[in-house]
Design a protein that fits this description.
94 residues; mainly alpha; 6 helices
Length: 94
């Protein structure tokens, strides 16, 4: 999935920022930021935090999307994926 990448592009474009400006702030190359936005690469936790800071975005929202992408990617194509999510949800509520 690419929930985070879509949100990053939306936020960056709404602020009129270039890919290279985001890249410079988080100290990566422009191509990586482009790939993050397109969902071709996954950001690490520190990068998400730094991007949230730079874009003046809610860190919690971006972290939620980052985790959602990780979960969705893990269960994509699995017949029991949704059941596994429900199981974990029940376990976490305990």
């Amino acid at each position: 999935m690419n929930y985070l990448g879509n949100k990053l592009r939306e936020l960056r474009e709404s602020k009129g920022l270039l890919l290279r400006q985001v890249a410079a702030y988080i100290e990566v190359d422009t191509a990586l930021v482009s790939k993050l936005e397109r969902g071709e690469r996954k950001a690490n936790k520190d990068q998400v935090i730094r991007i949230a800071e730079f874009l003046e975005a809610e860190e919690k929202e971006l972290m939620l999307l980052w985790l959602a992408d990780k979960i969705a990617d893990s269960i994509e194509g699995e017949d029991l994926g949704i059941e596994a999510i429900r199981f974990i949800e029940r376990e976490f509520k305990r």
